[in-house]
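This part of the workshop introduces the protein records we will be handling. To make this concrete, we reproduce a full record directly below:
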Amino acid sequence: MTGPGVGASDPVAALLAPFREVLAAPGAAALAAALLAEAVADCGCDRGASWHARQAVLSTVFELHASPADADFAEHLTVGRFITLFFLVDDGPPEEARALARAVLAVADAGADAGYGAGYGAGYGDSEPARQLRVLVDDYRGRGLPTDRLTALIAEFCAATAEESAGPPPPGHSLARRAETVGVRPHIECWRLLRVLPLPAPGSPDRPLPEATVELVYLVNDLLSAAVEERAGGSVAAGNTVLARARATGDRAGAVEAAVARHNALVAVLAAARHRPLGALLGELVDGNRTAHRALTGLRYPGLPLDVFDRLHTVGGAGWR
């Protein structure tokens, strides 16, 4: 992957300097710099440039890992913009997520997503997530790609994330909410649009694959971040499906075992579809999500349980990696 260089005297480069080891992969520093430059230029919060630098690093690591091996810099930047939006919503105040969800639906109801022109996206509001969504939509529209389904999926993600802050979901709804808050459906849509892949038709062998991918990603996240979320407590831990099962059964070890077994069974489903374009794409997203957690052990997932990590099968290896 290639991308624009970053000069040593550049203030963006200085902000990213503490993350040099995390950004050691080819192209990582350039992608983080591009994402951070956009964030700082459009910043309306009081969290500061250093906070945005950390978010740009998180977005870069997840994007470079959880993406097709042949992705170019422009594709990485496009989907990196979505991952930046994901972290702005996931780590931000719930009222911003709730407001953005309402605004996206209002724009869609008004039919504004059917056209494109001056002032497009103004109805999203002026929060940082709203501005980031406009950047993302402009990117896809500039490529001549439709965004109505993508924005609808983003609205669902935002609404579910806001609801999660209020506490545990009603009985029987925890998995459905987790499937939304993990943000995988819009992430898949980002790549589906870029790679011009059709939506799987009802009854096709690819039909179950996107939802299997959603579950795989949140199982990995919940297994590997459980210790961090237990320490955080409150609404952070409330969304973790492994911890929810542990609370319900009183058996934390059993909850981990059940999640690992379910993960590996779903990996086998994706591995069997690796010869088809959608299966190959989703397999790379799943495997990359797993390795991104490992790459971010020191930054976001301290105490990541390597014993659990090493038991999680991979699609590309159809077994251990």
About this structure: The longest helix spans residues 209-232.
